[in-house]
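JOB MANIFEST
job_type = single_chain_structure
chain_count = 1
residues = 410
[input]
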Amino acid sequence: MPNLLAVALGKPDTTVNNVTAELELLSGSPSEDSRLISDLAYSTCWQIAELGLDPKDTTAKELYQTLISAYGETSRTFADAVGESVRDSLPQRYERIGKILEQLNEQGEVWALRNTSSAKLLKVHQPKRVMKKLGYRSIDSMLKREDPKEIFTAATLIETSRWLKSVKKYMSALSSGDFEARRPVCLVIPDSLWSGAAARRPLVFACPEVGVVAVWPNGLAAQTTTLGVLALVLRHLEDLYNLSSSLDVHYLRPGLGKLAMKLWNEPSTPAFTIKGLSFSWCSICGTGLQPTAELSGDRLPAISCRQSIGRLHPALRWWADNEYLVFVDNQGKSVSLNMIDVAVSHALGADFSKRVLSDGRAKLTDELARRYMNYLGVINFIGSLLPGSSGITVSRKPATSNGRQLIGTR
């Protein structure tokens, strides 16, 4: 019989079996993999029943169609709650999204360039295309009137590859003093301001160098619901937190700029790999692997996308509980209950054969790692795999277990 966890993850049985066998060996065989499989089966059945379907007699295709419909209804409820009207133009809708983002009160902090360092960088490497677009002849004049974070964010997409290469080289030589821990910024870049820019831009993307998650209306802007845009922002925001957590052990060490640029240029690089299965930094954030307080600078802890979505509106609490839920039917077909996967599928108008499962599968992989992060043997083993492992300390009490294709990831 196929391994339910392997099917849900979209991985070969042998890969998942080898990974769980290794984790079981390191942890003293607590059967956390079996417990996760049971929880996954129970939770998906419960949530499917909440949709009014019979879990025992529902195919993945039927569930997918129901999820798309349910998401559409939830999106309309949310749109009504924030005052959206069907008569709103696209700029009006995204202006409202910008106001909602301004009200997000996330407590986490990320490592990013100081504003003074960003301004200095822009003076040394002037973003000519951005200056021309905004009608500035001098960089000093632009920096007096525009936010360096927004300028840098836009420049990463519309400046030349030569400019980007020069900036990356410049940033690689920066020291810890050029960085600071601060609240990330979420913003909508007005399409009217940047329209006509010669760039293929994603709808939502992160610019970790300056701690920004930006929404830049593109060809998918009209099809993506307001709820979908906000969910994508929150996921990118969580990714920023997790990327920053991997820099904690390097803070105040020589070469922080070089390490940061390597990480920011390759955000999809896994934190560690076990037996061929890759795990993200999210899988260890908030677990028993803690950087020392001295090195972390006591950054405020990150807030998860799941928690943030649940707080947006009461109608979203059902969706918030589905982050790592992937349903497998009797024919071995899978469908993700993860809201971001459903939101992206909804925006793309994807039929069942082109359904999106990437975010749900990524979160299920993270959950697998988290289930074993209560055990000292696993903590020590994973700690030894991390870059800068000498700066990792094991907390006295291991953490308690708590039970992309994204639209635009730079």
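[summary]
Residues 4-394 form one domain.
The radius of gyration is 22 Å.
exit_status = 0
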